[in-house]
Each structure stands twice: as structure tokens, then as C-alpha cells.
Here is the input.
Amino acid sequence: MGAGSWGTAFASLLTDAGTDTVLWARDPGRAQEIAENRVNARYLPGVRLPDGLGVTSDAAQALQDADLVVLATPAQTLRANLVAWGDAVPRGAVLASLVKGIELGTLCFMTEVVREVLDVPQQQLAVISGPNLAREIAEKHPAASVVAALDVDVAEALQAACRTPYFRPYTSPDVVGCEVAGALKNIVALAVGMGDGMGYGDNGKAALMTRGLAEMSRVGAALDADPLTFAGLAGLGDLVATCISPLSRNRTFGERLGRGETVAEVLAHTSQTAEGVKSCLSALELARKYNVDVPVIEGVAGVVAGHVHPTDLVHSMMSREMRSELDHPA
Amino acid sequence: MGAGSWGTAFASLLTDAGTDTVLWARDPGRAQEIAENRVNARYLPGVRLPDGLGVTSDAAQALQDADLVVLATPAQTLRANLVAWGDAVPRGAVLASLVKGIELGTLCFMTEVVREVLDVPQQQLAVISGPNLAREIAEKHPAASVVAALDVDVAEALQAACRTPYFRPYTSPDVVGCEVAGALKNIVALAVGMGDGMGYGDNGKAALMTRGLAEMSRVGAALDADPLTFAGLAGLGDLVATCISPLSRNRTFGERLGRGETVAEVLAHTSQTAEGVKSCLSALELARKYNVDVPVIEGVAGVVAGHVHPTDLVHSMMSREMRSELDHPA
Here is the structure.
């Protein structure tokens, strides 16, 4: 449900895995274009989609008799979409989220939004998260990911539904950890991008990613996530892919901020969502609620709000008081 | 002690930090050249070394009255160097290792080699390890690192000795963890380089780094290292810098293997040591001794020994039996 780059690539992947799949695109014109040309020219130009993939802009038609509903809308519009679909979502279907973000205002992660709107039991919810740059997957480059669900049968069914020779999903019970990691890595990627934009080297980049992952883990710990998730594909793996790839929207957005553009200037030049720009304020609010020290997220939120300069963010990361690495402030 | 790229860059860093420093170069001609031109033309061409840095090829002169002896020789020649220096190493001096590797035959990490040869108490030993590409540090790009010593006073003195506005050292008590991480990351970087050479994308690269770090952590756990070290600058941080940098020797070596060159062919074209090529056999032996499952290291050792093709290494990583991510085989 959602024909952005990752939604489209995942629908293509499901089809390749032998799973009968229908892609829902919000815009009827786009749906028709994708159905006829077998290419999503806006989000995955040049990638041919498999013949077996259905495409529609009619949500009820896409959802009809579905065992599995994969959510791939922007984070801030998921709630409105779910409300609109309402009863068209089959009772008993597994709802799997590809969406990485934190809802503004409510501070909800995506499976929480699903539960609030659709009132489905937690056992029917899943999250798919890992180092999965959409374009590479659409081009069938090898990748691995995590399929997280409280119910191990649900996780294994989902794993089977998306397993292909080029895509290797691992199961995990840690839904919360995957959601925290997925939302926060976009914010760290913004910071890393700022460093890139300022001409910092790979040593500084690696250090910033390390301190950023530590921050992500601390927030996760406060929310009872499994610390191992942050060392795994959905934590470290996704962070690395997002921070090193020239394709990553959040890293690229940060790079432009690091070069001196304002948020408004960058927004004027990009068609895709940089989720971290929206989620950083919710993330900071969440961290404060749980008393977690998050200097990277705080710095990024300051830059996005316009009262911190990217140079000051990186400078403050380097000049904090010397201390032991393993002392984690609460 | 050692005028390779990292030894030279660290000597320069110590001098910048206000620490009175003498750089020892094995070759008298090179020592004279560095002393006169203030440039190490072979290992750090174009980088001007600070005026205050002394340079000599006379080890006894370099070691005389030293409070701190920084070891920066190749891993496989450290023992022979220590034997040669012998009594010239002042009793009571702190011995800090920059050397990342495992000695062939003995399976010793570097501080173990020091203890065997010089019989110094464990309290005088330290390791410096982190995302520290030598050239970037010589050029004063911002970086952070870990200074590990059992004795916290030693760690803090060393931290003070190398702290500059562009270099931020954190202390840690986990000497073993830093040595395991430093030695094994070179091997993972070889595997990642092979993927680069075969044209794999950033998703696969991130997944391989994640699985590689998990392997490093498992070996560390078997040797009673602190798991947090592997999530920190000396683990994740160093691995990331090594795997993403075009400057990294191990990654570059792997890339050439991935393109189809043999080990002998690559060796014929490189002047610098790719430590992982030597350490992978010791690392595999060590892992087997402790019954740790290390598919990445095993694959790299197979490629280096010539009986595994890089394609098969990556292919076998992707086709292993599907399972839960958090099940760590012992």
C-alpha cells in the first residue's frame, strides 16, 4: 500500500518470491501508468517491474481478500490512509510496516498507529527493516533484512513470502527495536550527511555513526527493545547503508544542509521525503520523555529548527568533555 | 617505534598534543630523509610533519628515558623488533600498541607478544584503536579513538598525551576487546572489498559488515572481551572507516581479489601491508580453538589460501539456511 520507491521495490520483490501481489498507488494516473508501462517512472525510473504484479489506485480492490497488507506510505500520512481504508482491511490479515518514522504530536511508532486506528491484535503486526536501499533491491542486488513480529509463525510466513535468491530475510521478535532503529537512523544519517557536506573524512563519519548508533540503542533500551537489534541488520546494517549510500535521501538532505543550504532551500529542490527531517522533533521529544541523552538527535533537531549551525553540531560532538567510552549517560 | 603511515601520523599527533616525541624509522636513509624534509614521502606523501618531532633510526636513542613507547611495526615483525630493542626499552615505560593483527603460529595478540618478550606487568600495557585512517589524521581531519589500558591512570595519561583539537581519545579498560576488534576488522574489510570488486551494492556491503561485526563480537566474547567494545569506536567505528574508505589497504586488497586477481598478483602491486591477509589464518585457527562460528573469516581465509573463489564466499553468505537473526551459534 504505497507506490513510492520502497513500496514499489517491495511489491516487485514479493512478486519475484512467488507471492500474489497488488501494488496500490494513491494517484489513479500513476497507477495506470505503472500498470501499462511496467515502470514506476517517478520513483524507480528504468527498473522494469515483474509482469505478475497487479497495480491499482482502488484501495478496496488492493486489500480485498489480502492475507498480508504491506504498509508503505509516508510516516506522517499513515494514520489518514488507515482511516480512509477502514473496513476494507480484511480482519485477520497481517499488517507489515515498511514505514520508518515517528508520528508528530502522538510520538507513535507505525505499528502503534495501526493498532490505534484498526484495533488489530499485536500478534498480527510486523515490521520489515534492514539495509534495503530500494533501488538496489529493485535491481536485484543481494540484500538481507529483518522481519520482526511477536508471533513467530507470522514472522516465518512473512519471511517465506519475501524470500528470493537476492533477498535474505531473518526473523526477529523485536518489533519495538526495529521501529526505533528504523526511525532514528534517518536522523543520524542527516548528521552524517552534514559532515559530508562540510568535507569531513571517513574517520569522523565512522565516529559519528558509532556515537549515533549508541544513541539509538539508548533510546531503544528505554523502550525495552533488545540491544542486539541495534547491532544487527535493522540497526547497524540499515544505518551503514543509509550513511554510505549516495542514494540515501536523508544523508543527501544532510549533505546539502552541511554545504550551507537552509531546510527550506533543500525542500524546494527535492521531490522525495527525507523522513528524518520530520521525525527528529518527535524523536527528541521521546528521548526527553524517557530522560535519554541524545546529543546527535538534539543537534539535528536544532539544525532543522534553524537555531543550530551544522558546524556547531559537529564541533560540539568533538569537544565534549573527555571521558570513558563505556560510560553511558542514562 | 615504526615510521609507516600510522606510526608517522601518530608521532605527528603526539607532537601536536604537546608531547615530546621521537619517531624511530628502521631504515637510516629514510630517517634522515624524514628529518631533513619533514615529510615521510613513502607513506604520507605531501603531509608536512611538525617541526618539534625528532626522527632517528637508532632505536636506543629513540627509547632513551621514554615514559611512553608507542609500537607501530608490522604485526608479524613486532616480536623480532622487541627482541632487538631488549634492554633499551626503559623499565616502567608504558607500552602502547597501534599494531592490529594476530601473530602467525603463536596466535598471540600484540600486547601478549610484548609481555612474552619484555616481561612487563599488564598494568603498563595499552592499546590505541579506532576509526583512524592515518592520512586523514596526518591532515588533521577530526577523529575519535579508544585508549585501552587495565590501569585507568595509564589510560588517562595516554589520553592526555594524544588529545588535540582534531583527535578525541576515549578511555576503556578493555584491552582484549580492542585487540580482537582491531585484528579481525581487517579480515572483514577484505570480504567487503571483495564485494566491492564484484560490483555489489551498499545493501550487501552493509549486511556483510553487520554479519562480520557479529562474528568479531563472538570471537571477543569467547576471549572475555566486553561486548560494548564491539559496538564502540574500536569495533564498529574502526570497521566502518576501514570498509568505506578508498584509503583502506585491506578493503582495496579485497577489491582487487574480487575483480579476479590472485593474492600473488595483488601482492606484486602493493607496497603496504594488508594485515588481514596475514592475520586471517591465525584468526581462523583461534576461532576454531574456541569453537566460534566465523563464516566470513573462514571464507576470507579460503580465498587467501586459493581454494575458495570470492563469488562463492559472497554467494554462501546469502544462501545459508534462513533463520532468526538473534540466534548466535556458539
The beta strands of chain A are 22-24, 54-56, 68-71, 94-97, 125-129, 143-149, 167-172. Chain A has 16 helices and seven strands. The longest helix of chain A spans residues 175-197. The mean pLDDT of chain A is 92.
